[in-house]
Write a structure and sequence with these properties.
single chain; alpha/beta; Rossmann fold; 7-stranded parallel β-sheet; 7 helices; globular
């Protein structure tokens, strides 16, 4: 399949559903061979078959981003069996909603381990592989506007995404010398499998009214920013964070 990413290999974490599955389809449609990674292998195999039926290339591999050995092994296997990684979409993440005073240490650790430590491990291993191969690359971290402006009952999530944003900037500075760009997308409010019911409640509808564009985001709204950062169109961008939020960050608290 021809496209702006033809000939490149992209790794997408959390590719079994939601944002990750959408990103994988988008990258494949734009010419990339896509390594699909998640803890559950069955949905990855289904997505792989779908991408291949559309004329793309895909490779499914189990990866638990909270397990260092799993990340190290999966990145090495992708490089050996599918090809050198050029693009990473660090998408794995969980919410763990809870007010700070009700948040257990176990819940805090679970959210931070997945959203921040896991993203670091994936970026580190992919970055090591890119540096060893002497090739440029692009790492795109999927952050959140909650990492830029916190929301209620999301202390662990907000801390993890804020940390991811600053990790993006730190890695962008460190890895630029190797031609490896590190940027982030910070989505606003989007309907997902986990929150779909909330947006039908009075509280959900009230929240939508506070978004200047008066609507939730659609997955397709993230396509342009992702392709910009993943491709040569964004070749002079690193350490950048792009909010895609319908103007939510512009609105008054």
């Amino acid at each position: 399949m021809a496209g702006v990413l033809s000939g490149r290999i992209a790794l997408v974490t959390g590719a079994s559903s939601g944002f990750g599955a959408h990103f994988a389809r988008l990258l494949a449609a734009n010419g990339a061979g896509v390594a699909l990674a998640a803890r559950r292998l069955e949905p990855l195999e289904s997505l792989k078959a779908e991408i291949e039926a559309a004329g793309g290339r895909a490779h499914a591999i189990r990866m638990d981003v909270t397990d260092e050995a799993s990340v190290v092994g999966a990145v090495a296997a992708i490089e050996a069996d599918f090809g050198p990684i050029d693009v990473v979409v660090n998408n794995s993440g969980i919410s763990g909603d809870a007010p700070a005073l009700d948040c257990s240490a176990e819940n805090w650790d679970r959210v931070l381990d997945t959203n921040l430590r896991g993203a670091f491990l994936v970026a580190r291993e992919a970055g090591r592989a890119m540096r060893a191969g002497g090739r440029p690359g692009s790492i795109v971290n999927i952050a959140s506007i909650v990492g830029l402006r916190p929301a209620g009952a999301l202390s662990a999530y907000a801390a993890s995404k804020s940390g991811l944003i600053h990790l993006t900037r730190a890695l962008g500075m460190e890895l630029a010398r190797y031609g490896i760009r590190v940027n982030a997308i910070a989505p606003g409010y989007y309907p997902t499998e986990m929150n779909a019911d909330f947006w039908e409640t009075d509280a959900g509808r009230a929240m939508i009214k506070r978004i200047p564009m008066r609507r939730l985001g659609a997955l397709e709204d993230l396509d342009g920013p992702l392709l910009l950062l993943a491709s040569d169109a964004g070749r002079y961008m690193t350490g950048a964070v792009i909010p895609v939020d319908g103007g939510h960050l512009c609105a008054a608290l």
